[in-house]
What we know:
By secondary structure, the protein is mostly helical. The chain contains 13 helices and 5 strands.
Amino acid sequence: xxxxxxxxxxxxxxxxxxxxxxxxxxxxxxxxxxxxxxxxxxxxxxxxxxxxxxxxxxxxxxxxxxxxxxxxxxxxxxxxxxxxxxxxxxxxxxxxxxxxxxxxxxxxxxxxxxxxxxxxxxxxxxxxxxxxxxxxxxxxxxxxxxxxxxxxxxxxxxxxxxxxxxxxxxxxxxxxxxxxxxxxxxxxxxxxxxxxxxxxxxxxxxxxxxxxxxxxxxxxxxxxxxxxxxxxxxxxxxxxxxxxxxxxxxxxxxxxxxxxxxxxxxxxxxxxxxxxxxxxxxxxxxxxxxxxxxxxxxxxxxxxxxxxxxxx
Length: 312
Ligand code: ATP
Ligand code: MG
């Protein structure tokens, strides 16, 4: 069986972007592939954090995985820091990672700019090396991620090829080694829709856990009235009618795409249904579809509760 790994950081609460871009797509995969889904707590400490909140968010994230339909009898579900080999491999990979590769990473540039110098630890820069070790450790074939992780995955691939070149293959053979690749070079699996859910307050930035304003995202566990309020207040535009794929209307494209994914309709059907609508008539439709889609996940999440078994 081909192998798949993926994970979400337990920082803040899981939002619609994490769900539509990642977790929702994991469900079907667990039937066909060998799957490992972990909670990447070591990635969550790359920016300032509170230890109690981190350990609670780690357990809550596990509950959400199960509530969304991850089946622990099919998939391996675990906490990254419980498997020490992730960090051991990271150290070995670090020595093969040119620092220039890390300096080019967009996420590092964005997060370090927002965090301010005093809060930028070395780990924020070396984050992609830990991500590479999460993936390469298991000789993974595919990695389902949102669009924002494409660059990190590309770095993982380049790093695997570099290690294979430096220590495997022909060069290694010359030194008396057995030869052959050390790491499998993994492929990204980026969903055709939902790979980049945008902020509710700015259609040009991605929805994010670390964005300061809670109004910018729909959290998976937001109560009905909060969802209704966020949609009521979200950014729109003053064009008439609604349409997909107009680059001048990023908010419109985003909200229609979210509606498409949570209602389970096709893009064509949504385009037809919404072309004659205005914001006033579309927003209640979107709100109802969101509430209806998230309700079973919310009910199920509250039925899973994890107690603390060790200090993290
Ligand atoms: P942070 O702001 O702390 O980085 P995040 O919202 O980006 O949090 P992560 O834990 O970094 O969440 O990402 C988990 C998964 O969710 C990754 O596969 C990532 O690609 C995906 N993802 C994150 N944000 C979005 C989004 N807006 N749209 C689609 N997928 C997303
Ligand atoms: Mg992220």
